[in-house]
Write a structure and sequence with these properties.
This protein is of the alpha+beta class and 240 residues long. Helices cover 30% and strands 14% of the residues. Bound molecules: iron/sulfur cluster and FE2/S2 (inorganic) cluster. Keywords: 2Fe-2S, 3Fe-4S, 4Fe-4S, Iron, Iron-sulfur, Metal-binding, Oxidoreductase, Tricarboxylic acid cycle.
């Protein structure tokens, strides 16, 4: 069977001063994803390689890496996409590296919780047995944003975030809009979103939307909230 050369960025704290590339030959199996290639390396060639994955089906969002310069889900990217290779695998750009291909996502998690990504209710609560019924149109208003799997490819592709790690960023803003546009939500996320490091930091490059594997459109979410925020300065009671 033909092999394909896979070059993997290694960074081992206490051992490497900076990341170095290590090459491995991996069988070019037609239905192997890049993640299968990494699992082959880990199982057969080098058990010290570190990376994250879980579901293997584009659902958990944990296997995002930089593959030949592009942020990709490695479980949804096939070895055969790269001809005869080589394939170069690096951690997601813009995040501190903990080890090899594992990045530190604590900063993102703090941003995510700052937008309160849940249904905020104020005042009277319906009993747990009650339904919060919605029409198909009300569901459609936010549905695409609910597809986000927190894979962080959009952050890695965003030139604003890579230059300014304090930028709230595409997924956190898209998820804020997922709740802002939900007819059941009563939360107000204006103070978090209406900031230079939030929606006003976006220069509308649109790379976030291009790389999203779940067809979320964070760029649209951000531009839409700019309109909401601008309207609020003239109509302070308008919240959505
Ligand atoms: S918006 Fe898309 S690219 Fe960004 S974290 Fe969510 S699923 Fe991933
Ligand atoms: S392993 Fe879960 S999205 Fe790739």
């Amino acid at each position: 069977m033909t092999d394909i050369r896979v070059e993997v960025a290694r960074y081992r704290p206490g051992q490497d001063e900076e990341p170095v590339f290590q090459g491995y030959d991996v069988p070019l199996v037609a239905d192997w994803a890049v993640l299968d290639g990494l699992n082959y390396i880990k199982d057969q060639l080098d058990g010290s390689l570190s990376y994250r994955w879980s579901c293997r089906m584009g659902v958990c969002g944990s296997c995002g890496m930089t593959v030949n310069g592009e942020p990709r889900l490695t479980c949804g990217t096939f070895l055969t996409e790269f001809g005869g290779g080589p394939i170069r695998i690096e951690p997601l750009k813009g995040f501190p590296v903990i080890r090899d291909l594992v990045v530190d996502i604590d900063g993102f998690l703090a941003k995510l919780s700052s937008v309160r990504p849940w249904l905020v209710r104020e005042g009277e609560e319906l009993p747990l047995s009650a339904e919060y019924a919605q029409t198909p149109e009300q569901l459609e208003a936010y549905k695409q944003y609910s597809m986000c799997i927190n894979c962080l490819l959009c952050y890695s592709a965003c030139p604003v975030y890579v230059l300014d790690p304090d930028f709230l960023g595409p997924a956190a803003i898209a998820l804020a809009q997922r709740y802002n546009l939900d007819s059941r939500d009563m939360g107000d996320r204006f103070d978090v979103l209406n900031q230079e490091d939030a929606v006003w930091g976006c220069t509308f490059v649109g790379e976030c939307t291009r790389v999203c594997p779940k067809h979320v459109d964070p760029a649209e979410a951000i531009q839409r909230y700019k309109v909401t925020a601008a309207l609020r300065s003239v109509l302070p009671w308008s919240r959505r």
